[in-house]
Amino acid sequence: MSQQKRLFLLDAYALIFRGYYALIKNPRINSKGMDTSAIMGFMNSLFDVIKREKPDHLAVCFDKDGSADRVEMYADYKANRDDTPDAIRTAIPWIQNILKAMHIPCIELSGLEADDIIGTLAKQAEKEDYKVFMVTPDKDFAQLVSKNIFMYRPSRMGNGIEIWGIPEVQKRFGVERPEQVIDYLGMMGDASDNIPGLPGVGDKTAKKFIKQFDSMEGLLANTHKLKGKMKEKVEENAALGRLSKQLATIIIDCDVTFDAEDYELSQPDNEKVQELFEELEFRRLKDQFIKIFSGDDDTTQAQVSSTPTAKAQVAEKEAGGGQFSLFGGDPAHTGETITDLNSRKTIGEVSHSYQSVAQGMAMELFLKNLMKQTSVCFDTETTGLDPL
């Protein structure tokens, strides 16, 4: 039986903010006076996921212009938040350029939060039999957890992770089903997003109401079972409760599509990534990158030609056996003439570069990329001409 494929979706801003504030007392300032804490913190989280998990598929999701729909519903949504620190604003394009050089998709849609993009992609991938890990410390994502969708919560300093499946969500929120987390958040509110919730309802009361009434709708339909001031507060703020639940609901049908090939972890542009790290003065991260993607400690790795998000082009021509042919077959099978073959460019006529492929992640990515090519050329060395 083939192993179930895994998709890791990173909540960019949650990890960037967390990385920045983890170093707030000892910020990383380079020789140019640039605060690189947010970039360093995010890259540490990304590399930790890649090293630990060796994911098949991975993408990073960004907020863009906030949630238009939620602000339209409630003008004070997230209005209590401080302005984004300049160091984080500066960090975003750097992070996106590094991800681009690593051939990792950056997904953002105007007017939508990363939560909604991750929610939509997670549900789509689940339908294609993927196991999905949402890499974020944000508790709101617990509402999306299912048999094949998990929260992957990194620690602040990279010292470990927590994985929340259904049992962990049930225990943390006192719910029977993960989707009831929406009702929990709607009842007690969420200070970080400025979602008001029901006045007088905190963690313990929300859990009690979930157990007794199952949902926000169940609570509001049975206020006659409440007593005293609580009955009065819930009845007077029923509309606020419904609104709060709506604000806390992650969208799972936004305009984004999961295409497995576009999210497959590919061979990075080693030269470009190292160039960016050198400019940022990230010596340790540069060394770490080389070890992860090259399999050894050499610092002179160069870019390998790859097509990270293009549709795979595997040679299908074979001589009746139904097997894929890595090399595309001989001229008789491919329809090419000797003239066609002789007209192909040689290594002396095209720009090229070299990379040592040792083991581990480097070898995995090399083989994945190799299998996407329509043809492959290789050279061997020998110690003698006698085959015996």
TrEMBL record:
A GO BP entry: DNA replication, Okazaki fragment processing
SMART domains, alphabetized: 53EXOc, HhH2
Molecular function in Gene Ontology: 5'-3' exonuclease activity; 5'-flap endonuclease activity; DNA binding
Pfam families: 5_3_exonuc, 5_3_exonuc_N
Keyword Transcription regulation: no
InterPro entries documented for this protein: 5-3_exonucl_a-hlix_arch_N, 5-3_exonuclease, 5-3_exonuclease_C_sf, DNA_polI_H3TH, FEN, HhH2, PIN-like_dom_sf
Domain 5'-3' exonuclease: residue ranges: 5-266
Keyword field: DNA-binding, Hydrolase, Nuclease
UniProt xrefs under PANTHER family: 5'-3' EXONUCLEASE FAMILY PROTEIN, FLAP ENDONUCLEASE XNI
Record-given protein name: 5'-3' exonuclease domain-containing protein
Organism: marine sediment metagenome
